Amino acid sequence: MGSYIQYARLDCSYKRTYQQKTNFHWKDGDIAFLKDVHEFNLDEYNILIKTGYLHAKATRHPVIILEHSKDYKHFLVTTVSAYSSGKENNYLPPWRQYNHKCKRRENFRAFAGSEKPFYYQNHLELADGGCFPKPETSWVYMPATFVVPASVLKEFDKTPRRLRMTEESLKELLHDMAKDGRFAFRWTNPNVLRILESKAPKCWKSYNRWAT
Predict the structure, then answer these.
(1) Strands 2-10 and 153-155: what pairing?
(2) What is the Rg, in whole angstroms, of the alpha carbon atoms belonging to the chain?
């Protein structure tokens, strides 16, 4: 049984109270949190980490819920990360860092407050004035999407309320992701079919609506 933090408003501050929750009712565009790899059970570890489908370093990150299976038991997610950027390196974006030199600049998108790969791009936006705790260092690397079971997701508890992308930003992000031909197979590649117990979602073809 998972736990989450509920914030109760008291004047200008928030009091945190812990409650138990088993169903998070994720919606496309929600910001969730990918559990630490050490919180995975053996089956989750074997199917996600041991196979090499998901890198352990991708865990313990906020993730965007991009799409869902018909039964809402599996979700397509992508991480939101600082990519080692911070005050100590003057918020250097990942495409300018040596450690990420193999990642192409055009494959990044930036949330509001973070440097954009190209000046003409829109920032990705959160709904209702939402903001990540590290607004200067919130990037998405678009090739890195993963289908994960609901059991490895929990609430992102660093903000008073659940964050969610605006509908326009989510559509724009998915459209850009679909420019990579591999995105069309995100629900049907062999690693994902193993996660789905060798059963492709009945509605998987509808997920290709972003293809150009």
Answers:
(1) unpaired
(2) 17
Q: What is the pLDDT of residue 197?
A: 80
The answer to whether the beta carbons of residues 33 and 153 sit under 8 Å apart is: yes
How many residues are there in the chain? 212
Tell me the pLDDT tens digit for each residue of 115-172.
Answer: 999 999 999 999 999 999 999 999 999 999 999 999 999 999 999 999 999 999 999 9
Tokens at 81, concatenated: 């990360």
Q: At residue 68, what are phi and psi to the nearest 5 degrees?
A: -140, 155
| Chain-centroid distance, C-alpha 49 | 17
User: Rounded to whole angstroms, how far apart are CA atoms 39 and 56?
Assistant: 11
Burial letters for 101-119: b for 16+ Cβ neighbours within 10 Å, e otherwise? Answer: eebeeebbbbbbebbbbee
Sequence-distant (≥ 6) Cβ neighbours of residue 31 within 8 angstroms = 62, 63, 64, 65, 80, 126, 156, 162, 163, 164, 165
Whether the CB-CB separation of 77 and 148 falls below 8 Å is answered with yes
pLDDT at 3: 47
pTM: predicted TM-score of the whole model, two decimal places: 0.83
Amino acid residing at 7: Y
* Range list of H helices, 4-68: 42-44
Q: Looking at residue 189, what DSSP letter applies?
A: S
| Cα distances (Å, whole numbers) of residue 166 to 30, 43, 139 | 9, 34, 16
Query: Does residue 45 sit in helix, strand or coil?
Result: helix
